[in-house]
Amino acid sequence: MSDVFVNYRTGDEESTATMIARELARRFGGERIFFASNSIELGHRFPVELVKAVEGCDALLAVIGPRWAEVRGADGRPALEAEQDWTRREIRTALERGILVIPVLVGKTTRIDRAVLPDDLRELADCQYRRFDHRNSESDLTALGDALARLLPELSDTDRDARAARERAEAKRPRKSAKDAGHTRIRTRDVEQRVRGGIGNLNGDLSGTFVNEPQGPVNTGRGHQYNAPHFQGDNTGVQFTAGDSSGTVHQRFGCERRRSDDGR
């Protein structure tokens, strides 16, 4: 069953109704949009199909142009006044069933005057409407589709434009290489780091140990590291007190601390 029924009057903006139906079908899928000339199969009885489609839709778009209330029937009277006028019957059925009805006012069409409406369509004048202008057709069609996607969650699931927008955003998102997946690299040409303690400027790809603001000599190679002579700790961490950088630091984990050679 179609989600959106496009209602229009022959002799008033049929081309606009066709444009709207075609764009909505492109965006949400043809099976989601009912438009009489396209949606009724050959040989099917259109009165039955029209009633069934209106009763089963979630929203009806009433495309209304400047001649909508003026088009006359075969008897010379305004077609809107005829009880069996299909445009009138479709809107009336939707209103009676509590279906969302959205008037689409084309061009310079003014808001619907309740005085020209038959009693069973008076509620149509109270429905919030959207405007469609051929000079802004692309943006107006997009806005109409966006509104329908917001109002009808099931319709939004088939929104091709929204899916394409997500794919474009995903394609533009930067991806990390496998080489950089496990750690973060800092380029000093991007970040200027000033270090005190005599090391000087650091250049290149800093992917290893980084020492900031050292207070004495720093050894990052092999051999002893000379820091403060006073050691504090319980083999669960290392703390150094400020000193004159004249001692050697030893630490073991998971075993008892040996006495020094002088204590044997």
Give a topology summary.
Layout: E1 4-7, H1 14-28, E2 33-34, H2 36-39, H3 46-56, E3 59-64, H4 86-96, E4 100-106, E5 130-132, H5 137-151, H6 153-156, H7 160-172, E6 186-187, E7 205-206, E8 226-227, E9 231-232, E10 239-240, E11 247-248
List keywords for this structure.
264 residues; alpha/beta; Rossmann fold; two-stranded antiparallel sheet; 7 helices; 11 strands; 13% strand
> Beta-strand level of the residues, as a percent range?
5-15%
Number of domains: 2
Taking pLDDT < 50 over at least 5 consecutive residues as the criterion, the unreliable ranges are 190-200, 237-243
Annotated CATH homologous superfamily of the largest domain: Toll/interleukin-1 receptor homology (TIR) domain
* CATH hierarchy, class of the largest domain: Alpha Beta
Which structural class do the helices and strands define?
Answer: alpha/beta
Biggest sheet layout: 5 strands, parallel
Q: Quick one: how many beta strands?
A: 11
Helix content: 25-40%
CATH topology name of the largest domain: Rossmann fold
* Structural Rg: 38 Å
Terminal CA distance reads 94 Å
Mean pLDDT over all positions: 78
Which descriptor suits the 3D outline?
elongated
Number of helices: 7
Strand order in the largest sheet? 2-1-3-4-5
CATH architecture of the largest domain: 3-Layer(aba) Sandwich
Order of helices and strands: EHEHHEHEEHHHEEEEEE
